[in-house]
Specification:
Blueprint: H1 2-7, E1 17-23, H2 30-37, H3 42-49, E2 55-60, E3 64-69, E4 72-78, H4 82-97, E5 106-111, H5 116-126, E6 129-135, H6 144-153, E7 157-159, E8 162-164, E9 172-176, E10 179-180, E11 183-184, H7 187-198, E12 215-219, H8 230-242, E13 247-250, E14 253-254
Length: 263
């Protein structure tokens, strides 16, 4: 049914295309499906993707892997090697549409995801990630995976014999504020302070210098209209002191440094 639907598409002026499918271990990748049924739309897709400034990838705990490139959205429910399926999709884009997926900045999004370490290592070695979003989801109070990712990004990772910074090109970090026993954990402040102080310092041979952060975007785990006060306000003021010009956002609005006022 999916094959018939794809092969029947005739839309030379298409602006958006969403493909939603499921893959199981041992099945052919989504690239095979697209190759067999969207060949007649290659020129249209090339035009759609030509101006892409960013590729966004979302990994969720339910096995979903979403790839967003301009108006193209590939939504894959995968069982097994989600990273492998993801790379199959991008390889298809690179091979058939002429889109240089290795040279485009990436936005990596983890939603309550427990396989992040493997993915962070892979992206560090293969692609240029400039943005990351880490969230637990509004349906859970379990923030273990969010805290784990933040801590991994806050200091060099001891890989083999040479410690390296994961995602060295990172410029913008979006993350939830995490509380434990009614207190805000220090992990976000630690992350910003360590990466800011280490930016521009050249590492070992063939290890890139850490890119300077441009923005830190904070939220309260799905709770809206929370005005920073008390410990949260103190966190914002500490971030302003240590971030050396990094723009700070609260629930998508820029923090001005005045309680209750945003831009």
């Amino acid at each position: 049914m999916v094959q018939f639907s794809l092969s029947a598409i005739e839309a030379p002026d298409i602006q958006t295309l969403q493909i939603d499918t499921q893959m199981r271990m041992g099945q052919s990748g989504l690239g095979d499906l697209l190759d067999a049924n969207l060949y007649h739309m290659i020129r249209t897709l090339q035009s759609m993707l030509a101006s892409a400034k960013e590729i966004k990838i979302m990994f969720a705990d339910n096995g979903r892997v979403n790839t967003y490139i301009n108006g193209l959205e590939l939504r894959l429910d995968a069982v097994g090697n989600t990273l492998g399926y993801f790379w199959d999709n991008l390889h298809w884009l690179e091979s058939h549409l002429g889109h240089q997926v290795r040279n485009v900045p990436y936005h990596l999004h983890f939603l309550h995801y427990d396989q992040a370490l493997e993915h962070l290592q892979w992206f560090t070695s293969n692609l240029k990630v400039t943005k990351i979003t880490v969230e637990s989801g509004i349906w859970t109070s379990d923030h273990r995976f969010t805290v784990a990712i933040v801590r991994l990004l806050a200091r060099p990772y001891d890989a083999a014999s040479t410690p390296i910074w994961l995602l060295p090109y990172l410029e913008v970090i979006s993350v939830e504020i995490v509380e434990e026993n009614g207190r805000i954990t220090p992990d976000v402040q630690d992350l910003v302070e360590r990466r800011v102080s280490a930016s521009g310092v050249q590492g070992a041979q063939a290890v890139p210098a850490l890119t300077r952060l441009r923005g830190i975007k904070l939220s309260y785990g799905g709770k809206k209209n929370v005005t920073p006060a008390g410990a949260l306000l103190a966190l914002f003021r500490n971030l302003q002191t240590i971030s050396e010009g990094v723009e700070i956002y609260w629930e998508d609005e820029r923090w001005t440094g005045v309680a209750g006022r945003h831009k």
